């Protein structure tokens, strides 16, 4: 046999460190065919479709907790003027809300249910006007 470097590339024998394939279906893995380490892909930003937001649609009212948070924030800032982090205020408010008896929460639940009822009336009116076509596209063009 001649020197393997002088032979054409098709006739290069297998290296002794490589085992022979056991079946004809098993591929021969040469150093060039070895799997490369997987490279992590950078996540592509998902493009969101532009959703038309109806500016005349009523907004949902806040929950009872948010009405409590409003009151609690005022008193907490008076008691702790040096604390300015919303994170710390939120944590303290959450703890207070969890430990607060239901009797004290009723005040905030009442406010929230009143606001919810107003929202549902406004939403029903909005849907009725939209179905009747009272808010036509012509009126939207006036604002542009």
UniProtKB/TrEMBL annotation:
<dbReference type="InterPro" id="IPR031061">
    <property type="entry name" value="HMGB_plant"/>
</dbReference>
<dbReference type="Pfam" id="PF00505">
    <property type="entry name" value="HMG_box"/>
</dbReference>
<dbReference type="GO" id="GO:0005634">
    <property type="term" value="C:nucleus"/>
</dbReference>
<dbReference type="InterPro" id="IPR036910">
    <property type="entry name" value="HMG_box_dom_sf"/>
</dbReference>
<feature type="domain" description="HMG box">
    <location>
        <begin position="58"/>
        <end position="127"/>
    </location>
</feature>
<feature type="DNA-binding region" description="HMG box">
    <location>
        <begin position="58"/>
        <end position="127"/>
    </location>
</feature>
<protein>
    <submittedName>
        <fullName>High mobility group B protein 14</fullName>
    </submittedName>
</protein>
<feature type="compositionally biased region" description="Basic residues">
    <location>
        <begin position="37"/>
        <end position="50"/>
    </location>
</feature>
<keyword id="KW-0539">Nucleus</keyword>
<keyword id="KW-0238">DNA-binding</keyword>
<dbReference type="InterPro" id="IPR009071">
    <property type="entry name" value="HMG_box_dom"/>
</dbReference>
<dbReference type="GO" id="GO:0003677">
    <property type="term" value="F:DNA binding"/>
</dbReference>
<feature type="region of interest" description="Disordered">
    <location>
        <begin position="23"/>
        <end position="57"/>
    </location>
</feature>
């Amino acid at each position: 046999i001649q020197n393997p470097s002088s032979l054409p590339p098709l006739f290069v024998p297998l290296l002794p460190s490589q085992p022979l394939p056991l079946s004809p279906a098993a591929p021969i893995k040469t150093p060039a065919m070895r799997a490369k380490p997987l490279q992590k892909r950078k996540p592509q930003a998902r493009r969101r479709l532009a959703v038309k937001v109806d500016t005349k649609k009523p907004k949902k009212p806040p929950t009872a907790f948010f009405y409590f948070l409003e009151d609690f924030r005022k008193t907490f800032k008076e008691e702790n003027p040096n604390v300015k982090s919303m994170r710390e205020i939120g944590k303290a408010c959450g703890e207070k809300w969890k430990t607060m008896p239901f009797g004290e929460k009723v005040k905030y639940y009442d406010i929230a249910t009143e606001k919810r009822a107003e929202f549902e009336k406004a939403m029903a009116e909005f849907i009725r006007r939209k179905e009747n076509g009272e808010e036509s596209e012509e009126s939207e063009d006036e604002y542009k």
